[in-house]
Amino acid sequence: MTSGLWELVLQGVWVTIQLLVLSALLATAVSFVVGVARTHRLWIVRFLAGFYTEVFRGTSALVMIFWVFFVLPPAFGWQLVPLWAGTLALGLTYGAYGAEIVRGALVAVDPAQKEGGIALSFTPWQRMRLILLPQAVPEMIPPFSNLLVELLKGTALVSIMGMGDLAFSGNLVRLALQESAEIYTYILLIYFVIAFLLTRVMRGLEKKLKAGVGKSAPRRETVTPEPAGIGGAR
Question: If you count Cβ atoms within 10 Å of the first and of the last residue's Cβ in the chain, which end, N or C, has fewer?
Fold first, then answer.
């Protein structure tokens, strides 16, 4: 490829990273707000949080991007630029999945910890901030890491709006060179490198947070299967 085409690809990488960071920040905020609301003592709060979660988990992210970019703005008389439309659609969609991660981690905290906070006359907010979240957040990191990689792959959907992300730029280069195998191989490798770096960062964050609460991150061990006997029987 020429230097101009590589520059186009690098611009797409930068747009993808911007979209990833912005939508991840929105999804994280939504995850914690809705996830905590799913454990609220008032049923109406739990119902509204559950309704949001089911709606956004049960709809296609691709259709949601279409809806936010093409349907929502005319209804209110304004227009969203592709970057903010993609951020809103992806952040709200993946935030619904993240909310279940937060809810599950909070529910998994030992009930004795909650009872201890009640015995100390802590308010619900104090129990959440001082007892529940410090123990639950380290357990959220592995599933959040997976969700972040899924969000990275989901950013390719914004190319349908003509947004110059990595997938869109790669397609322009493919049309210019009339070469699919080489270009899409490069694009796959770039996505892989970004995903690999994300998982390394999240793994380090997991170790740091678990060290802060006196835990150690589980070691990833490879289990070697026992050889099968004659005819496949053990």
Answer: C
What pLDDT score does 212 carry?
66
Contact 131, 122 (CB under 8 A): yes
68 contact partners, CB below 8 Å, separation of at least 6 = 80, 85, 88, 89
| C-beta separation of 86 from 19 below 8 A | yes
Residue-wise burial string across 136-157, b where 16 or more C-beta atoms lie within 10 A, e elsewhere = bbbbbbbbbbebbbebbebbbb
Contacting residues for 161 by C-beta, under 8 A, at least 6 apart: 65, 69, 82, 85, 86
pTM of the predicted model as reported, rounded to 2 decimal places: 0.84
**Identity of residue 68:** V
The total of other beta-carbon atoms located within 10 Å of residue 133's CB is 17
- DSSP code for 233: -
Please tell me whether residue 123 adopts helix, strand or coil conformation: coil
What does the alpha-carbon distance between residue 42 and residue 110 come to, in Å, rounded to a whole number?
21
Q: What is the dihedral of CA 64, 65, 69, 70, to 10 degrees?
A: -60
- What is the helix (H) or strand (E) element at residue 86, kind and residue range? helix 82-108
Residues with pLDDT less than 70, the chain: 1, 212-234
pLDDT, tens digit (0-9, with 9 covering 90-100), for 136-151: 999 999 999 999 999 9
**How many CA atoms within 13 Å lie on the side-chain side of 4?**
3
Query: CA 7 → CA 28, 61, 159, 167, distances in Å?
Result: 31, 29, 18, 14
Helices and strands in the chain, H and E counts:
10, 0
Which residue from 25, 27, 48, 24 is spatially nearest to 38, judged by alpha carbons?
48
